Automatic annotation (TrEMBL):
Protein's GO biological process: response to antibiotic
Source organism (scientific name): Streptomyces lincolnensis
Membrane topology: Peripheral membrane protein
Classification via InterPro entries: AAA+_ATPase, ABC_transporter-like_ATP-bd, ABC_transporter-like_CS, ABC_transporter_ATP-binding, P-loop_NTPase
Keywords on record: Antibiotic resistance, ATP-binding, Nucleotide-binding, Transport
Location (main, coarse): membrane
Protein name as catalogued: ABC transporter ATP-binding protein
Length: 297
């Protein structure tokens, strides 16, 4: 569906996308994660043909991005890009439907995006979250095979966000490929069946959320201690990466929890309420990207 082959894009000295190779298969729901400036928006712009690569090739459905867009195979919701002023929501959605080669009925698009009651509202009078829903309506105005969303839920309240993802799941269940960039890692964890982690324009990790968590390697260990806490001794535990002590509770992150816990007993301590758990996607993301930063410095 989507194939990036050694794609690079620089802005002056900044290598926004750096030798990126990846492919997306039909029916996948893929989250694109990365710290600020990692190159997510640039990657999506290259995918949509809004920017041209300095080198490498981007192919959508075996054609150029532009051809795929003209054929109506891609629906996109971008982070920026103003909505037209001085028109109503219904007029704007009607225009998007008219421009799509395989449009849905306007009423269906409005109700799917949850904006039927806003149909007669001027676009420039919308709240931030309402404007996001209108962008979503424009991205789903017709039957596209690929839906690209750049930080789609920014500014949406909790209910709107849940509704939005329920709709996206329906789209995915119907066989569409959904690619979305986000900073909400819990969304990626809950929605995506594949997670890509970008860092300085390169792909750092590519797998299911579970694989990304495993790749981070670390585990969380927490326990309570009775009696005075010997902090230097705890800090000397093997494979420890971080430690936090609040009251009687000690929370650590370890790259080898078995060895750390073994050493804990070796110190003659008697931890109570011991818990060992894997990292959440957010912690795994931080572990992977900070390890990469450290490697590059
Ligand atoms: N038009 C531009 N001119 C110059 N530099 C740019 C331009 N667009 C992006 N950049 C730089 O390219 C890098 C990648 O930016 P990009 O917007 O793709 O990252 P991002 O991962 O989407 O970031 P964010 O999470 O903050 O939205 C950044 O260092 C950014 O400052």
């Amino acid at each position: 569906m989507v194939a990036f082959d050694q794609v690079s894009k620089a802005y002056g000295e900044v290598r926004a996308v750096d030798g990126l190779t990846l492919s997306l298969r039909a029916g996948e729901t893929v989250a694109l994660l990365g710290p600020n400036g990692a190159g997510k928006s640039t990657t999506l712009d290259l995918l949509l043909g809004l920017k041209n690569a300095d080198s490498g090739t981007v192919r959508l459905f075996g054609t150029t991005p532009r051809e795929a867009l003209v054929a109506g195979r891609v629906g996109a919701m971008l982070q920026s890009g103003g909505l037209m002023d001085e028109v109503t929501v219904a007029e704007l959605v009607r225009l998007a439907c008219a421009l799509h080669p395989k449009p849905y009925p306007v009423a269906d698009v409005l109700s799917r995006a949850g904006i039927a009651q806003l149909a007669d509202r001027k676009v420039d009078k919308l709240s931030g979250g309402q404007a996001q829903r209108v962008r979503f309506a424009l991205a789903t105005a017709g039957d596209s095979d690929l839906i690209v969303l750049d930080e789609p839920t920014t500014g949406m309240d909790v209910t709107t966000r849940q509704g939005f993802w329920a709709t996206m799941r329906e789209q995915a269940d119907q066989g569409r490929t959904v690619l979305f960039a986000t900073h909400y890692l819990e969304e990626a964890d809950a929605i995506a069946d594949r997670v890509l982690v970008l860092h300085r324009g390169r792909l750092l990790a590519d797998g299911t959320a579970a694989e990304i968590k495993a790749k981070a390697g670390a585990r969380r260990v927490s326990f309570d201690l009775e009696g005075p806490i010997d902090e230097p001794a705890l800090r000397g535990l093997p494979f420890l990466t971080t430690i936090g002590i609040s009251g009687r509770t000690v929370r650590i992150q370890s790259s080898d929890a078995d060895a750390t816990v073994h050493a804990l007993y070796g110190l003659g301590l008697h931890p109570r309420n011991l818990e060992v758990a894997g990292l959440g996607l957010e912690q795994a993301f931080v572990a992977i990207t900070t390890a990469e930063e450290a490697k590059q410095q």
